[in-house]
């Protein structure tokens, strides 16, 4: 298959503009899933919902990879390795995390929108890496690529460990909220979100392309505000919530809430 430059460019800019628009939307409204929506209405069980919405980002690149003619050159190996890095995240999210989660049911529209996004992004990252990207024969010793891989693996480890901590807060069937402790949660309220943002920033550094940076930006714009919302919610729920914790970036960004008239809260 030839490289579809116009399609790659168009989808990349859709990610960028869509991410910024989503960021602005989340400064005014909570995205309606998880703790911010009741389980009433048309919802999908958490395990099935997470599987259905995440698995396209694994299957679409896999199909593109299987349709590719076998290559033996080192630059082809580099493209395949980077694509497998992308797929590794979504393999875990689809086939491991989805069946371990103890979260709330997911509204069907959220599942549908997420599945469409994962399908398009899976195609964008897969097609660009397999048919458009070009690497030097010295890619294996490239410091930038090595640093990107290291950041990706570090972020994935933080993400998986943080998800484990969150699951451990609940017994099967429970939907209560407790203060997460340990790991990166000692520094930020959104440790799982921080790990995922670090993953895709590392991926963008390794690939160094418009599609990879567009995806990294979209990730920050979509789950960064989510971490702030969780941080604010924790502060409102728990009077003894650790005051030293930041929202999503260790030692830098924070959200603080104070009581105001009428028992409501003001957060800055």
Q: Explain this structure to me?
A:
- The protein has 268 residues and is mostly helical.
- Helices cover 62% and strands 4% of the residues.
- The strands form two sheets. Strands 1-2 form a two-stranded antiparallel ribbon.
- A hairpin with a 5-residue loop joins strand 3 (257-259) and strand 4.
- Helix 3 packs antiparallel against helix 4 (74-100) and helix 7 runs antiparallel to helix 8 (210-237).
- The protein is globular.
- Mean pLDDT is 87; it is low at 255-268.
Using brief descriptors, characterize the structure shown.
268 residues, two-stranded antiparallel ribbon, disordered C terminus
Question: Which helices and strands appear, and what pairs or packs with what?
Answer:
Layout: H1 5-26, E1 43-44, H2 46-54, H3 56-67, H4 74-100, E2 106-107, H5 108-132, H6 143-168, H7 191-207, H8 210-237, E3 257-259, E4 265-267
Antiparallel strand pairs: 1-2, 3-4
Give the gist of this structure.
By secondary structure, the protein is mainly alpha-helical. It has 8 helices and 4 strands; from the N terminus they run αβαααβααααββ. The strands form 2 sheets. Strands 1-2 form a two-stranded antiparallel ribbon. Strands 3-4 form a two-stranded antiparallel ribbon.
């Amino acid at each position: 298959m030839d490289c579809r430059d116009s399609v790659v460019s168009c989808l990349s800019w859709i990610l960028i503009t869509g991410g910024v628009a989503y960021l602005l939307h989340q400064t005014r409204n909570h995205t309606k899933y998880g703790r911010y929506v009741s389980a009433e209405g048309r919802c999908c069980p958490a395990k099935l919902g997470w599987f259905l919405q995440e698995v396209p980002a694994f299957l679409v690149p896999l199909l593109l990879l299987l349709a590719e003619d076998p290559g033996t050159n080192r630059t082809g190996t580099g493209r395949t390795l980077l694509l497998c890095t992308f797929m590794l995240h979504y393999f875990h999210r689809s086939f491991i995390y989805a069946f371990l989660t103890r979260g709330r049911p997911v509204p069907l529209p959220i599942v549908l929108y997420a599945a469409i996004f994962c399908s398009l992004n899976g195609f964008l990252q897969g097609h660009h890496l397999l048919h458009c990207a070009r690497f030097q024969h010295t890619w294996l010793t490239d410091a930038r690529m090595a640093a990107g891989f290291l950041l990706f693996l570090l972020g994935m480890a933080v993400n998986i460990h943080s998800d484990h901590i969150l699951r451990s807060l609940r017994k099967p069937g429970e939907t209560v909220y407790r203060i997460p402790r340990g790991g990166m949660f000692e520094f930020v309220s959104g440790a799982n979100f921080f790990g995922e943002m670090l993953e895709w920033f590392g991926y963008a550094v390794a690939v160094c392309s418009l599609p990879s940076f567009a995806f990294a930006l979209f990730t920050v714009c979509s789950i960064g505000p989510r971490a702030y919302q969780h941080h604010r919610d924790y502060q409102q729920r728990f009077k003894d919530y650790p005051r030293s914790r930041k929202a999503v970036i260790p030692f830098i960004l924070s959200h603080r809430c104070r009581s105001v008239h009428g028992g409501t809260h003001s957060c800055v």
